């Protein structure tokens, strides 16, 4: 039931603060120790020399963020693969691989195909899914819940942030990290709430930047490049505005030729190491006529940025940076008079290959 909301998508965007709290409550005890992950999972992953994350669409994008936690916090090399590619073009594997399947529905046929292949090869598997009684959770060796609650809108929102959080918690449980993740997640929840409270800001951005546009860009570097892919998918999937998301450094290698007078270019800027470079790239597209809309984090902000995000641990910034993109996609679609929850040609769960 979507209650007072006009669309499920908006309700599900708003639920993300609650989901972050739910996950912290489920996976940590009052002392801040991890309790929600069985030792079987940890012990098995610790024997692995490499993690392979397999997923599709938004879940694949969540995996691109998760990779950073497994590498930075758990110190395990991690590859992220598109399920439909991996299924028929399996790369050379490491000696002791461990497979993580990420899925909202747990029914995605492309991912199921990979799971079947991997099981035949005898490697250990874990599914992280929102629907716990699903094919992918039943058929993997281990399963962890995403606890986002039912996601009805075709455009995935809360499953994305929840999948990122579960990966962060899992990676944290495997390593020896200084950060108090439970406390940091509480902060994330507060800040997600603060961003979703500013809907009018994003409605105004969507209406001024995207009205009458048929193409748009999201750029970023590092983790922001990963979020840019998800931001672009969100916008194109429901508004039908052709949107490319990519690593900002790639602009000069071809895509910059697409920039015209007024082309909207959204820049996500939350990573200190590359902020200066990204500022340069924003200036380059602006010089070619782009309408640049920069979404930055507080300590990296400049006065003319379109929106300044509150700050949490830099590795967790994707959880905040994606929220404006979800809301901008929502309002751009609304402004076009389209059905936000049910974009053409798409199904919520893609059960065919
Ligand atoms: O249920 P899954 O997470 O396995 O689904 C994967 C994709 O089909 C899904 O994320 C799709 O890309 C969404 N419509 C994106 O909003």
From TrEMBL:
Residues in SIS domain copies: 41-180, 206-343
Keywords assigned by UniProt, alphabetized: Aminotransferase, Glutamine amidotransferase, Repeat, Transferase
Signal peptide positions (record): none
Transmembrane annotation, as ranges: none
Class of this enzyme: transferase
GO MF entry, a single one: glutamine-fructose-6-phosphate transaminase (isomerizing) activity
Name under which the protein is recorded: Glutamine--fructose-6-phosphate aminotransferase [isomerizing]
Annotated source species: Convivina praedatoris
Upper taxonomic lineage: Bacteria, Bacillati, Bacillota, Bacilli, Lactobacillales
Name of the encoding gene: glmS
Residues of the full protein shown: 249 to 601 of 601
């Amino acid at each position: 039931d979507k209650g007072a909301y006009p669309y499920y998508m908006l309700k599900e965007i708003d639920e993300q603060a609650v989901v972050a709290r739910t996950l912290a409550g489920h996976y940590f005890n009052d002392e801040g120790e991890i309790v929600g992950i069985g030792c079987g999972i940890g012990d098995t992953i610790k024997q692995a020399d490499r993690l392979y994350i397999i997923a599709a669409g938004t879940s694949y994008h969540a995996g691109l963020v998760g990779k950073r936690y497994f590498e930075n916090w758990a110190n395990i090399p991690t590859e992220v693969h598109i399920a439909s590619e991996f299924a028929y073009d399996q790369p050379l594997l490491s000696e002791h691989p461990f497979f993580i399947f990420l899925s909202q529905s747990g029914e995605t046929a492309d991912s199921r195909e990979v799971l079947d292949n991997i099981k035949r090869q005898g490697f250990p598997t874990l599914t992280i899914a929102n629907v716990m009684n699903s094919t992918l959770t039943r058929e993997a060796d281990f399963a962890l819940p995403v606890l986002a609650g039912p996601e009805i809108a075709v455009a995935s929102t809360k499953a994305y942030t929840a999948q990122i959080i579960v990966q962060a918690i899992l990676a944290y449980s495997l390593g020896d990290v200084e950060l108090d993740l439970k406390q940091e997640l509480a902060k994330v929840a507060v800040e997600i709430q603060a961003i979703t409270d500013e809907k009018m800001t994003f409605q105004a951005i969507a209406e001024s930047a995207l009205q009458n546009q048929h193409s748009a860009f999201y750029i970023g570097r590092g983790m922001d490049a990963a979020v840019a892919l998800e931001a672009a998918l969100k916008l194109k999937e429901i508004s039908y505005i052709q949107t490319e998301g990519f690593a900002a450094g790639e602009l000069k290698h071809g895509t910059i030729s697409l920039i015209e007078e007024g082309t909207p270019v959204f820049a996500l800027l939350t990573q200190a190491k590359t902020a200066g470079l990204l500022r340069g790239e924003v200036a380059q597209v602006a010089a070619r006529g782009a309408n640049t809309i920069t979404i930055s984090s507080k300590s990296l902000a400049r006065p003319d940025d379109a929106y300044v995000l509150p700050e949490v641990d830099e590795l967790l910034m994707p959880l905040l940076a994606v929220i404006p993109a979800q809301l901008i996609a929502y309002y751009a679609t609304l402004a076009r008079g389209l059905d936000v929850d049910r974009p053409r040609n798409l199904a919520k769960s893609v059960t065919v290959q």
